[in-house]
Amino acid sequence: MSPNEQGMHCVIAEDAEIGRNVVIGHHVVIHSQVIIEDDVVIGDGVVLGKNPSKSKTSRLVTSDLAPLRIGHGTVVGACAILYRGSSIGPECFIADQAVVRERCRLGVRVVIGQRSTVENDCQIGDYTKLQTAVYLTATSTVEENVFIAPMVTTTNDPYVARAKSSHETMQGPVIHKAARIGGGAVLLPGVHIGQEALVAAGAVVTRDVPPYRLVMGVPARVVRQVPEDQWLFLPDGVRRE
After folding, report:
1. What's the pLDDT tens digit per position in 178-216?
2. Are residues 137 and 99 in the same domain?
3. Where is the signal peptide (predicted)?
4. Is the Cα dihedral 27, 43, 113, 170 positive or negative?
5. Same domain assignment for residues 103 and 127
6. Per the domain annotation, does 98 fall within a domain?
7. Is residue 6 helix, strand or coil?
8. How far apart are CA 44 and CA 238, in angstroms?
């Protein structure tokens, strides 16, 4: 017998797989085939395994999605929505009202802040933190130990939906290992933020940012090197002792 705690007025599909010591709040909806590993906490009003929908003009592929999987020890805050086709790593923290769309992969101990949105087909590495109200656009890649401050906006459409080929050219930014993005910054489609780079608050990044460099301004320009005593990783990728 599973020692799970379950709140009132929940709707749970019969084929959902729920591990041991799982706590489920009130008014939770768990859709078909969702896999919840041990020691997970699900807040009130959460929706798990939602199937995506799309507008009549959208080219988004929403079929043949794998079941949502939530790794052990993860906490999902109140009214969060996690879509089918995504995988949430162990010991993640998904805050209240956050949304993680389909085909996303979150690593170990990833934090998704309150009211943040992770759009479809994003990859987020271990120990990365997205703070409050971050918008991570579709097809973005965020490597491990990245910090993204509140209200950061990323974009993926260089033609702003005015070209017929815009869908084929869409590409979110790539944020490399241990980079930091300051509050309210905007990253344009396809830019690379180098390892250990620092984007200042309010900057608009229109081109690639070199590793270990601080950029600021509109458009963002290199100002200086990030102080070495702030580095988590050396240029060869080895973590500092």
Report:
1. 999 999 999 999 999 999 999 999 999 999 999 999 999
2. no
3. none
4. negative
5. no
6. yes
7. strand
8. 41
